[in-house]
Each structure stands twice: as structure tokens, then as C-alpha cells.
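note to self: dont lose this again. the chain is below, predicted strucutre after it. 117 aa total, dont forget to put it in the shared folder this time
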Amino acid sequence: MAEKKNDIVLTADQIEAALKELPGWEVRDGWLRRKYVTPGWPHTLMLTNAIGYVAEAAWHHPDLELGYAQVVVKIQTHRVHSITDSDVALAKQIEVVAMWKPESGSPLEGFPKNWVR
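---
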């Protein structure tokens, strides 16, 4: 098993710079936060499972709030009660997975209606 790394708590300037690479994300009440809107309950569950997979693989876990057509992701390193480099890295990976859709011209057709936004 990998050695536990030290948490690097980010400054306000570092967080602001990171948010420029994370569209839709914000800081609220000390948490890195993003609300994803889905077409409905089945998509909310699929997105939640995808986020859970990423979080478990990373061994860094967000707080999730579910609604019929939304998932709110809140990330903070619990052991230091602050936003760390691990939180930003997890947010970036969640964003990649949540917003992925086949590119135009791909052999994969893609969901024909509104997807996650």
C-alpha cells in the first residue's frame, strides 16, 4: 500500500487559480462545490455511481447530496477541514467523468437528449 501523503492545504489564491480550470465549481462555506443537473432520476443515480467509483479509486471521498435531477458534490479534506491539492485533483477527475460525452464524428452515438450539465 502507498505511504500516506501529507495534505497540502491550498491558499485562497491557489484555490482561485484552480477554479479557473474547473468550470461550474465554486467555494462555499470552506468546501469545493459543484451542482450537476441531470435529465432525471436514472441519470442522477448513474452520475452518483460514477462519482463514487472515481472517489473510491482515488481513496478520497466527497460529500454528495442527491435530488431528482441533480447531484451536489462537496469536497474538503476532512482530516484538516480545508481544501487541499487532493480535493482539486478529485474535482478535476470528477469533472472529466461527469462531463464526458462522445466527440462529434465518434463511432459512439451518445445520448440524444440533454445530458449532465
